[in-house]
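Priority: medium. Attachment 1 of 2:
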């Protein structure tokens, strides 16, 4: 089993290579991942993901886990697991307040943290849906642009149809707007990139997690169900105030 920090890197690399988050030296990150090497250098790079790392600290702290890159913590943030349920509304509120209150108006922040007591977990997809919505794009003529970026940035799942040298063809449900609310559309065939390492490729019929057009990891049935459940919870929370 690969170290947690390597798993973190697999999910963090796709937006990093596009310049959206994390350190600018994405070639170094790619080098670590190509060898599944999780030493101190990779940890230093991973701590520089200012969007994701504080969530790992929050989840680890709430569960009494000393290492934010513990594999269980990393899986909780990107995929979802029982660790998320142990992060109470108050710690999540304080984390969001520290990080985002200075960047937002009072009403915008109040809307962001409303309904936290409904059990909303600090999952990556919660962050994606809420922060992109705060950009104010979902109700104007640029809404389709914002929705597409949200769809790419969320961690999603795909059912593998075919495997090629560099790509996978998967059936994937896109994020859509229905009567002004977020929802998942019908599955459609899309092509995503495979990881650039020596791992055996997924086979047709397998499930994979997807982030910014990359297949990050193969999903067990348990992990698939956890990701689906965390995504539904994030969509439901966002729709409360959309």
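Attachment 2 of 2:
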């Amino acid at each position: 089993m690969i170290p947690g920090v390597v798993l973190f890197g697999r999910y963090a690399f796709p937006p990093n290579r596009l310049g959206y988050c994390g350190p600018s030296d994405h070639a170094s990150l790619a080098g670590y991942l190509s060898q599944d090497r999780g030493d101190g250098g990779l940890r230093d790079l991973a701590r520089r993901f200012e969007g994701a790392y504080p969530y790992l600290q929050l989840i680890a702290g709430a569960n009494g886990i000393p290492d934010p890159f513990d594999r269980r913590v990393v899986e909780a943030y990107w995929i979802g697991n029982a660790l998320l349920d142990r992060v109470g509304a108050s710690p999540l509120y304080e984390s969001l307040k520290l990080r985002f209150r200075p960047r937002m108006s009072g009403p915008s922040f109040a809307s962001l943290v409303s309904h936290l007591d409904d059990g909303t977990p600090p999952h990556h997809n919660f962050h994606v849906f809420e922060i992109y919505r705060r950009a104010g794009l979902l109700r104007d003529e640029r809404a389709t642009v914002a929705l597409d970026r949200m769809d790419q940035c969320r961690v999603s799942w795909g059912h593998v149809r075919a495997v090629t040298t560099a790509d996978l063809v998967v059936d994937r449900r896109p994020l859509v707007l229905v009567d002004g609310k977020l929802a998942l559309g019908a599955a459609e065939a899309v092509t995503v990139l495979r990881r650039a390492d020596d791992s055996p490729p997924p086979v047709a019929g397998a499930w994979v997690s997807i982030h910014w057009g990359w297949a990050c990891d193969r999903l067990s049935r348990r992990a698939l169900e956890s990701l689906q459940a965390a995504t539904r919870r994030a969509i439901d929370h966002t729709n409360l105030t959309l």
